C-alpha cells in the first residue's frame, strides 16, 4: 500500500470519528427512499501483467478518483449505481524499486451496480455499517493505445452517519477484481496477465429524499 493510500485511510478514519462525534444522539434518522452522492477516493492496483521469473510487474499506479452515485432503498435492500473517473500513471515494479510514468498513464471510467444491506446500527443517531457488492464495467484509456473494456466485481464495507437534516457523511473501503488492463498482444511472451486487484478508500457526501 502506498503512502497516498495510507494518507486517505487516515483521512477516512478521521472523517468517521468526526461524524460519529457530531451526530445528533437523541433521535434516530429515517432511511430515505432515494439519495444522490458525490465522493472522492484513492485507488491502488495489483499487477496488470508480470514476469514471475524476473520478478517484474507492470500496471496502473495509484490515483485519485471522483465519483457520483444514485441509491434507492427497497425495503432492507439498498440498490446503488455509481460512476467514477480517475487518472493514474504506468507503474513498473521489481527488485524493491517502483517507478511510475505519469506521461504514459491511464484514465479509468467505471460504472458499478451494487446491492447492499445494513449490517448493524451504531447508537441512536442513525449511523450504521453497510455491506454491498456487485458488478463493475470499466473503460480504460491508455496513452497511444486503443480503448479497452473490462468486466469485474467489487465488494464494499462502509460507515454512514447523518450530519444535518437529510445529509449524511460516509467513509468506505472497497475491494475489486477485473481482467488485466493490458491486451495480450501488447506484452512480451514472458509476461502473464493475472486478474487485476484493486483497493479503494474514500469519503462521500450524500443527500436523501
Describe this structure in words.
- The protein has an 8-stranded antiparallel barrel with strand order 1-4-5-6-7-8-9-10.
- The protein has 209 residues and is mainly β.
- It has one domain (3-24, 42-208): Beta Barrel (Porin).
- Helix content is 10%, strand content 64%.
- Residues 25-29 have low confidence and may be disordered.
- It has one helix at residues 3-22, and strands at residues 34-45, 49-51, 56-60, 63-74, 77-94, 97-122, 127-142, 148-164, 167-178, 196-208.
- Strand 5 (77-94) and strand 6 (97-122) form a beta hairpin.
Strand order of the largest sheet: 1-4-5-6-7-8-9-10
Terminal CA distance: 37 Å
Largest sheet: 8 strands, antiparallel, barrel
Our count of helices gives 1
* Helix-strand topology string: HEEEEEEEEEE
The proportion of strand residues reads over 45%
Features:
Porin; 1 helix; 10 strands; 10% helix; 64% strand
List the helices and strands and how they pair.
Blueprint: H1 3-22, E1 34-45, E2 49-51, E3 56-60, E4 63-74, E5 77-94, E6 97-122, E7 127-142, E8 148-164, E9 167-178, E10 196-208
Antiparallel strand pairs: 1-4, 1-10, 2-3, 3-5, 4-5, 5-6, 6-7, 7-8, 8-9, 9-10
